[in-house]
Amino acid sequence: MEMTPIAYLIILLNCCKWATATIDERIVGGYFDRIENVPYTVSLNTKLFGHFCGGSLVANVWVVTAAHCLWGKKPSDIFVRAGSTYKNRGGEIRKAKKIILHPLYKRIVDVPLDYDIALVQLNKPLSNNSDFIEYISISNPLEKIPGDPQCIVSGWGITKSEVGQFQLLKSATVRIVKHEICQKTLYQKIISKNMVCAGGQEDDACQGDSGGPMACRGKLHGVVSWGEGCATLGKPGVYAYLPELWDFVAAHIYMDTDESEDINRMLPKIKLYGKK
């Protein structure tokens, strides 16, 4: 009997793997890295299973990750490890104080992974004088990157399509794929304006990398979300697109920007997400 998507989803969640029945996204290929090269990369853990998703440190008490990583979880379920090349030891550990999912996540029936972004507030600040822990700026709506630049994804996900998650941090260089090309390639799925595609060559994100960063030109441009296979030739990975989702993040986190006057004109729409 053919397994239904819902049944498959339940199995994946029970195994503490990621969140969808038909799509997967995690780093295959790439290279071994050290946390000081990508010091904004953090590991999300549960007490029972350890590492389950990645994240990006965007302030000393705030982490950006994927909403599907935290769907159904409470702050008491998770903790964050920062400043370590290893996913299950070293660095600094902080408990989660608050989890905030984008209010439109799971609300778009035809695009269940649209608005796949969430925030974790830590219970206390991380070190601010460490070479191993730094936060990364977020690309705002005025910083949509033209062309097809190369970006860096990092995490502790599986390194081959059928191999367990890796203990050491890996990074990969991926190139942005134009929206219309990505939509034609992944024609059975809807690629919304809140998504950006990258990869589709030999290097890619993979299982366990979900929620982790895609940094372009030194700023957080994407959050690992989903894909069809890992490093499948011609099948790019799909990332939550920070320039389109910036207002959700800004509603909860104060962010410095050189374009303060232009950004201030955008702030009224942030009220949708509850900015006080």
From TrEMBL:
Keywords: Disulfide bond, Hydrolase, Protease, Secreted, Serine protease, Signal. Its main location: secreted. Residues 1-21 form the signal peptide. It comes from the Eukaryota. Residues 27-254 form the Peptidase S1 domain. It is found in: Secreted. Belongs to the peptidase S1 family. CLIP subfamily. This is Peptidase S1 domain-containing protein. It comes from Aedes albopictus (Asian tiger mosquito).
